[in-house]
Design a protein that fits this description.
The chain is 19% helix and 38% strand. The chain is an alpha+beta fold. The longest helix is centred in the N-terminal third of the chain and has 28 residues, at 2-29.
Length: 564
């Protein structure tokens, strides 16, 4: 009997292992499949990248036959990734496809199946190919903006493309030079590289996208983008050549009046705005005195997270609301800057019953449709239940009724006691205690010192220092230029601010870095050296902050297509 029991246990273990081996691939296949493309708008005969990601390790290959109906499928690759965070192991796998559309129009990338799961369809717009080639046929530069007319603080995407059909040496693409009104420049994603075919000729294309945010009305003047390189032709290398695009002008309109339904609406331009909410628990039944947390998230495409207006929390006498510090994040995608502001509020019910929370409304200006729109969260109801620890009032007993003595009753009369006077005493004691508390509260020293005004946003403080630096440069005030720029830099790099103008020049792009070095040499170098205040003021109107410091100036150029 003992031998049979041991054999039975061994058999059960073997069956359990076999069952786990058979079931695990099925469970692994049932994972989320995410499809993403690197660009939402492409030209015909222009390649783009499709990535299929599964959030677990899986051995099943994607079924991508549906892609061949509207797209040419080129290079394919895959990558497995393993991450360990706090002892938790997570695995993912990504397949990358290089695609090229077969026809023009608004196409839909079909779902890609992996096991029983599949990705969501992805829309993409395919425009006609360019037929006119500016500059030389082998190398040329193009620039474009998604809007030729915009509004104050509204995002404008500026795209620079360098087309190369031949190999180059020492390539360098300059940063955009912008004049006119004051503009805040942000990089809208990493530099992209892909292949394109124009008039039967294959080009390597390098693309950079910038998000421009004008700070005042007027006109933005974008000078031609400049690409410099030495060209390899027939085994010979030429001298350095310069290729330029066309100049672009953008009209910036002033802020339009708010909508009639929201006369106090804050100016908030974007491409799209979505409101979302989440509760820490179900709001259907909340005991009185217990907290519940409400998360409200605002996601805006085409705007910075610091520009998202503050949403007023729900206000009711039946609840107390305690807001927490908001969280901000900015990412980039094909539409530009994607900003997210997350607010959370702790809500405590003080009165039992149903509390109606009004709808949350955020008016915003649609920069594509050029009209006011409103993002909304629907109204909700919060049910506050009576607290289980709250003492319930005792029922008041009826006063004793006097009965006439009967000759047949020989014993003592029965006395019925009431809690009425005890409750009256407790009430008087509570009123006396509240009076003492109110007297103590009124005797507390009060702070009559004036409140400090709220500091303006960082970008407005930086704009003020930059404006003061330009004015000092035009006046020839070198000390004023240095003081204002170092104040601006302390806000830009609070953890490691530059200690001198020379150090600051290594953190900004051309041509501002060159003029700052000239100012530094004129101030501390030997002999008489001059610096141009006009050129310095002009370079401060449009520049970029380098992601990391580099010693070899000028800025890093495009990677060579062929090694030296």
């Amino acid at each position: 009997m003992v031998v049979m029991n041991i054999r039975s246990q061994s058999l059960n273990k073997i069956l359990a292992v076999l069952l786990a081996v058979l079931v695990f691939p099925v469970l692994s296949a049932q994972a989320a499949v995410i499809a993403a493309i690197d660009r939402a708008n492409v030209e015909l005969n222009e390649s783009f990248t499709l990535k299929i990601t599964v959030d677990t390790a899986i051995d099943v290959e994607p079924d991508a036959l549906a892609l061949e109906e509207d797209f040419y499928v080129g290079t394919r690759s895959q990558l497995s990734n393993t991450t360990i965070v706090n002892g938790q192991i997570s695995r993912s796998r990504t397949w990358t496809y290089v695609l090229m559309a077969k026809r023009e129009g608004d196409l839909l990338i079909p779902p890609v199946k992996i096991g029983p799961e599949q990705s969501e369809p992805v829309p993409i717009r395919v425009t006609p190919p360019s037929t006119t080639l500016p500059g030389e046929a082998d190398i040329f530069v193009t620039t474009e903006t998604d809007h030729t007319e915009s509004f104050v603080q509204a995002q404008v995407l500026y795209t620079v493309k360098v087309y190369r059909a031949v190999a180059t040496r020492q390539p360098r693409l300059s940063e955009p030079s912008i004049g006119g009104v004051e503009v805040l420049i942000e990089s809208a994603g990493d530099e992209r590289s892909y292949e394109s075919i124009l008039n039967g000729k294959a080009y390597n294309v390098v693309e950079r996208i910038y998000a421009l945010f004008p700070q005042e009305s007027g006109k933005i003047s974008i000078e031609p983008a400049r690409f410099e390189a030495r060209v390899l032709r027939d085994g010979r290398i030429t001298g350095r050549k310069i290729f330029e695009s066309n100049a672009i002008d953008i009209v910036v309109n002033p802020i339009p009046p708010p909508p009639a339904d929201f006369p106090d609406a804050a100016w908030f331009p974007a491409k799209s705005v979505v409101l979302g909410e989440d509760w820490s628990r179900e709001p259907g039944g909340l005991p009185m005195g217990e907290p519940i947390t409400r998360h409200i998230t605002v996601t805006a495409v085409g705007q910075l997270s610091t520009q998202i207006p503050v949403l007023a929390p729900a206000n009711s006498e039946a609840v107390k609301v305690y807001p927490d510090k908001p969280e901000f994040s900015d990412t980039t995608d094909a539409s530009g800057i994607r900003a997210v502001r997350s607010d959370q509020y702790a809500i405590i019910g003080v009165t039992a019953g149903d509390v109606a929370l009004p709808s949350v409304e955020l008016p915003w200006w649609n920069i594509d449709a050029a009209e006011w729109q409103v993002a909304r969260l629907p109204a909700s109801t919060l049910t506050i239940l009576p607290s289980l620890t709250t003492p319930q009032p005792a029922p008041v007993a009826a006063p004793p009724q006097e009965t006439a003595p009967s000759d047949s009753q020989n014993g003592p009369a029965t006395v019925v006691y009431s809690d009425f006077w005890r409750l009256v005493s407790v009430g008087i004691a509570l009123v006396w205690l509240m009076t003492i508390i109110a007297w103590w509260w009124s005797r507390r020293p009060k702070d009559h010192s004036p409140r400090q005004p709220e500091a303006p946003p960082i970008h407005k403080q930086q704009a003020k220092f930059m404006k003061a630096a330009r004015k000092a440069a035009l006046d020839g005030d070198a000390a004023g230029v240095k003081a204002s720029l170092l104040q601006w830099a302390r806000l830009q790099w609070p953890d490691s601010p530059p200690r001198s103008v020379g150090e600051l020049s290594s953190r900004v792009s051309l041509p501002l870095s060159i003029h700052l070095q000239a100012l530094c040499s004129a101030s501390y170098g030997p002999g008489e050296r001059s610096w141009s205040g006009d050129e310095l003021a002009k370079s401060m109107r449009s520049f970029s902050v380098l992601s990391e410091q580099v010693d070899d100036r000028p800025v890093a150029g495009l990677p060579p297509l062929t090694p030296v």
